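Batch manifest, entry 17 of 40.
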Amino acid sequence: MPSGEPETGKLKYRRVLLKLSGEALMGSGQFGIDIPTCEKFARAIAEAREAGAEICLVIGGGNIFRGVAGAAKGMERAQADSMGMLATVMNALAMQSVLENIGVPTRVQSALNMDAICEPYIRRRAHRHMEKGRVVIFAAGIGNPFFTTDTGAALRAIEMNCDALLKGTQVDGVYTADPKLDATATRYHQVAYQELLAKDLRVMDSSAVSLMRDNNVPIVVFSLKEEGSLLNVLYGRGTSTTITNEGAEKP
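Output type: structure tokens
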């Protein structure tokens, strides 16, 4: 076994928040929700739960409506962001349905009161759900405009006492530059929060990164495309980038 690799069967991260972009739910489509793609994510979450992990989720709303884009077209920003929050609720309900179809107990908690369709966000209740093995999906960001779902994910990860925030993306980590534009870009195995901010490596917005840095909770960036990638991250295996308060390290 390679040096530093956790022993087989032992999770490196037991309680985690998984952050998915709304665009990830589109699959190969141009907008909306692709159910087979949601089912793929649901199976990965079910595997992680069976391995002993406690999981909560935050899902963006960009596949349905993006507040910044609406504001850029002339809509008032606070109103546009409110519409974006509603989009995250729709995604959360879709993922809840898919998870429960495969037998995973799930609760949706919204930062905006929507008692007819989901629970209000109550921190202690969310903790209890996770202790009972339920997957909790946090919707509507933090309930206020001008904050992204990245910031909402960082806040909920801290409130839930998560061991890490797992950011599922289309690339397998954080690179020194955009690998699609720069062939010389190399992937970090580990990078410090301060360097991430100083070099403006756009993994999450700066408010979210600062919040995670100040509370010393790591972010792990990995690719959703690889089969078993979520489980690998939980065991400390596979290809990813870990963002911490420690120094940078390239593979």
